[in-house]
């Protein structure tokens, strides 16, 4: 299998519709329902994450929206300790299992928590990963608040990588950001709708600018918006 950075955004053909986004349910319930099957499809780290982490090191690192821990594992290679946080307890169970099986459990702790209210102290981490999660927060104020939270927990001189789905993907025939759902199909055929806010690149940059983060670098890659960010006072 050849992993690609767009394993999330390529699902856009499954289903999308603004009307359904109002009844998709909360991310916690959604990902608790699909966690075991979802985890099996999220084996490899994204190349963009690997590139961001190349040459970086820190005492402490943070993976916001860690899912099954595939990127937490990478962070454990460049930090003495790493915390993975997710809203889904079932995905956290998958992450704990992965850490034990792959031998990075001594370096990693997994906590249940909300990206918009991180259970982490101020200035606590030198490196952060916040990928494929921002777009699951239904309200803009929650999305910006989660970026503020990332800024709060980053130490002076720290940096993080943020990503979200983008309208720049050729499967989306729209210029402005919009809300939608994308179905996850479980074995047996059951479909579980997942809420997404699809960002335009300009909107992504604007939300970062509205937060307590400063953007070091912003780009679009394979249908996703990416930004390397740091605290404003860094």
Automatic annotation (TrEMBL):
The domain of life for this entry's organism is Archaea
Q: Name one GO biological process term.
A: methylation
- Please provide an example of a Pfam family that matches this protein in its UniProt record: Methyltransf_11
GO molecular function per UniProt = tRNA methyltransferase activity
Q: State the PANTHER family in the record.
A: ALKYLATED DNA REPAIR PROTEIN ALKB HOMOLOG 8
State which Enzyme Commission number(s) the record gives: 2.1.1.-
Taxonomy, top ranks, is:
Archaea, Methanobacteriati, Methanobacteriota, Stenosarchaea group, Halobacteria
Locate the region Disordered.
1-31
Q: Which regions are flagged for Basic and acidic residues bias?
A: 7-21
Q: Which UniProt keywords apply?
A: Methyltransferase, Transferase
What is this protein's name? Class I SAM-dependent methyltransferase
Q: What are the Methyltransferase type domain coordinates in residue numbering?
A: 62-161
Entry-linked CDD domains? AdoMet_MTases
């Amino acid at each position: 299998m050849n992993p690609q950075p767009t394993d999330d955004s390529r699902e856009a053909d499954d289903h999308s519709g603004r009307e359904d986004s109002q009844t998709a349910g909360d991310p916690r319930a959604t990902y608790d329902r699909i966690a075991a099957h979802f985890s099996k499809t999220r084996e490899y780290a994204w190349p963009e994450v690997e590139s961001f982490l190349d040459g970086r090191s820190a005492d402490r690192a943070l993976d916001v929206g860690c899912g099954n821990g595939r990127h937490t594992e990478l962070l454990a290679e460049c930090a003495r300790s790493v915390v993975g946080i997710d809203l889904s307890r079932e995905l956290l169970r998958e992450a704990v299992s992965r850490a034990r099986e792959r031998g990075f459990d001594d370096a990693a702790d997994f906590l249940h928590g909300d990206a918009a209210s991180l259970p982490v102290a101020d200035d606590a981490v030198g490196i952060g990963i916040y990928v494929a999660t921002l777009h699951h927060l239904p309200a803009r104020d929650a999305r910006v608040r989660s970026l503020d939270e990332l800024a709060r927990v980053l130490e002076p001189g720290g940096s993080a990588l943020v990503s979200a789905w983008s309208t720049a993907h050729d499967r989306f025939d729209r210029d402005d950001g919009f809300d939608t759902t994308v179905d996850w199909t479980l074995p047996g055929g059951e479909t579980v709708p997942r809420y997404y806010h699809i960002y335009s690149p300009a909107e992504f940059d604007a939300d970062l600018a509205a937060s307590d983060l400063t953007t070091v670098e912003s780009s679009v890659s394979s249908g996703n918006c990416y930004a390397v960010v740091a605290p404003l006072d860094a």
